[in-house]
Design goal:
With 112 residues, the protein is of the alpha+beta class. It contains three helices and nine strands; from the N terminus they run H-E-H-E-E-E-E-H-E-E-E-E.
């Protein structure tokens, strides 16, 4: 599966990733890992971190930023939109997942 078709990242989210990358300086061999792990009040939760490339990762490169997604997480992240909100209701990355059948109030966990 082509990762470019897997997810969408808004310009605002991409700019924020660049700001964090510049401040943390994780190194050129690392990228932004998007993953899904068990947990949260709805059963699954999103994970976002800087990480090294793993052998079977799907890789999206957008504006010199590598986005890494492991094959298992790809199933849950297909068609998501990663955005960044900084309004009165809080600040942070937001996953807009059209495949989620249930989400928690905080927006950090979901079920399918």
């Amino acid at each position: 599966m082509a990762t470019n078709e897997l997810i969408e990242i808004t310009e605002k989210a991409l700019e924020q990733v660049k700001v964090i990358f510049e401040s943390e300086k994780p190194g050129p061999e690392k990228g932004l890992r998007l993953a899904v792990i068990g947990g949260g009040c709805s059963g699954l939760q999103y994970k976002i971190e800087f990480s090294e490339l793993k052998e079977k990762d799907n890789v999206l490169e957008k504006d010199n930023v590598k986005i890494l997604i492991d094959p298992k997480s790809s199933i849950y992240l297909k068609d998501i939109v990663l955005d960044f909100k900084d309004g009165l209701n809080g600040k942070g990355f937001v996953f807009e997942n059209p495949n989620a059948t249930n989400t928690c109030g905080c927006g950090e966990s979901f079920s399918v």
